[in-house]
């Protein structure tokens, strides 16, 4: 193995690889097979015999080859790589992989569309998932993000509704496209907190040129906690070394027809050629004392932290340098979970994040067939696992010993817990108080300020693309009332935008509200000075 292939995760995977080419065929019991083309029959023209165990085994395994696709993000592609730290983050976090400049951590990164099923086209207008598993010496850390910095909803309880609205409609299972149908736009107008995300979704960010040319965002506010127990709020960013580039809609549609695998092909071929894929890793940090310094709530996942107010500090680089050996074993069986953290990284009370902490293991229990999916090669941490969890379908570990409970007085050989000093994970002791209520701070209901900033930060060609996207997607909606509500909603972003949509989809022009003067007839790019830096990558 050469250097780039010799990281610890790769050495672990090597122990599971099966090199079958040129070998003698066996059954799953290891018996050499003499005949693999004709089943055993009673005479030349007779029925097949049950006794043919090789036929039965081969067919049974085939019959069980499929597992459920992910309930979202079904269409995805992944690669191995490494994360290298540029500067120590020890002032902010005690996470071991963020201490020593130059230290390297193996990673596995899966990029996906959200709405389409497993075989759908890759260049469709959609959010892209951006999930990274860091195999650290303290256990797996998963940063499960997207290529847009905000989200559609503010509370996890709405996620099933969002996805039911985004996925193909249940009565006729159409369309595959996320945003070109009545239920999607009906959800949007019924949940106006989606306004900011919809602006990103209708922008060129939703049709990336390549997986290598898009940003990634952790979206939620997390916490970094240092060895002294001091915490900072943090947002995570991935910045592509090649810059951010998008397709235009016409290209995206043509490519979807001609090469539905366009993005995976691009990623695979780049890595095969040795043209490795690089993303720099950045953090935005806010001190705990500054939690309430902003005119939005930093726990609100529909709001970003303006980069000119909270700059992104670049602290490392991820390089994707090795394609998978087997897409099913690795890309399909990988299980990411925003709750997989290491000491020094913790959660915030973002109500969307809190719900995600429940959802991922729950879905993987069915998708990956029971409680032992952490033993699948791609999911194994590179550090050892010791606990009293036992048995279940597909169990591989052979736990030795009489006792499988903690604590016990029979023997002294069951695993014991670690103190914080020994590296035990201790949850951040945030003080919480309040009544049990189903509401959030008032600023959660400001749905349009940042959506407007986004619009104002666009150049004229970008604005025209956004209008074209709205016109195409909303134009597919059959219900005229929903179309009208879209116009009435987005007049809160900009009157010129709403008027252009109204014209394109044939409903009444919006009333009231000021415009920044946008018109599709305008010739020269305009920028709003105040906000133009906010969204630059
Ligand atoms: C995948 C739930 C919001 C990023 C998934 C899966 C579920 C899920 C059930 C399938 C996991 C699997 O089968 O392994 C939820 C819920 C959310 C939510 C309940 C909100 C309450 C988000 C947000 C982001 C995100 C805000 C981005 C910050 C992803 C990604 C994947 C994924 C990247 C694909 C992971 C992979 O490649 O395997 N989500 N999600 N999700 N989710 Fe979420």
From TrEMBL:
Biased composition (Basic and acidic residues): 1-14
Catalytic activity, reaction form: 2 H2O2 = O2 + 2 H2O
Pfam families in the cross-refs: Catalase, Catalase-rel
Location of the Catalase core domain: 26-414
SUPFAM superfamilies on file: Heme-dependent catalase-like
Top-level lineage group: Bacteria
Single GO molecular function: catalase activity
Region ranges (Disordered): 1-21, 508-537
EC number per UniProt: 1.11.1.6
Keyword set, alphabetical order: Heme, Hydrogen peroxide, Iron, Metal-binding, Oxidoreductase, Peroxidase
Similarity comment: family membership: Belongs to the catalase family. HPII subfamily.
Name of the protein in question: Catalase
Organism in which the protein naturally occurs: Sporosarcina psychrophila (Bacillus psychrophilus)
